[in-house]
Known about the structure:
This protein is α/β, with parallel strands linked by helices. It has 13 helices and nine strands.
Amino acid sequence: MEKIIFDVDTGHDDAIAIAMAAGLKDEIEVLGLIATNGNVSLDRTLENTLNVAEAVGLECPVFYGSDKPLLRDRVAAGDFHGKSGLDGVTFGPRKKQECKGNGILWAINSVLNNPGEITFVSVGPYTDLAICIKAHPDFAKSLKRIVVMGGSMGRGNATDSAEFNIWGDPEAAEIVFNSGVEVVAMPLDVTLKVVLDEKILEQIRCEKESEYKKLLLSQLTFYIKANLENNNSMPHMHDPCTIAYLAKPSIFKFERRNVHVETKSQLTYGRTVTSEIDDNAKVLLGVDVDLNEFWNVFFKSFRNLK
Ligand code: BDR
Ligand code: CA
């Protein structure tokens, strides 16, 4: 059983990842969710996280995290996720409320009190995780490991050089990739291979009716349109790769490399610079995925959701 702290900037693929984690009850225990600034501002990612958590029956606490990156100005990904961050979905009245107090402090205490047991999963800019690492000297070494979505060994998607989660807080990403803890990263090199195409969409439509099916399909109506308009492609399952990995690590192939993040150059700000393959490096970069297995994990989770 993987015990995770899940840090999210809830847009559409984050929402799918949260639902996937909720459905994989035998494999993953979500100890808590932390909403962070990223795809949209913190007030919206928090609202979206609370709505999704309630809709998929996650009873864990939901906290707020950082409302801005460590040093740079805020950036957003509204083109892909809409003004609310989760356009296309209307949620009913909600009972779930955020926990009072900052999620960063809660995460630090949880990890220090359970050394070696908790995986920190970050699928937005890594600001909260970087603050945890810098705030307490024992935090990083008390983690089981770190799993993130972000980076690219080739081109970026936010700029020519930078992937969005790294672009959102390059200084934080440099801290996370070099904390001394093992980082499992899902860069664009692998996440761009996981496309929710027409065939998968049809498979979802053929599944038995459920509240989650309705939610997912309404969410996808907007997300598919936004991806076709802005990217000329069906949506990529960036953030869900982290959850699929935790449920079944063997479906991904990795290369072990050192990663640094460009934080000085105007032209390539946020670029992930990778070393040669190196057995002693601390970062495992996803490079390939068994797509059949990925979708098996996805549908297994989907069928567990009401
Ligand atoms: C990342 O950017 C965000 O828009 C997605 O949620 C994902 O975390 C992909 O580059
Ligand atoms: Ca995200």
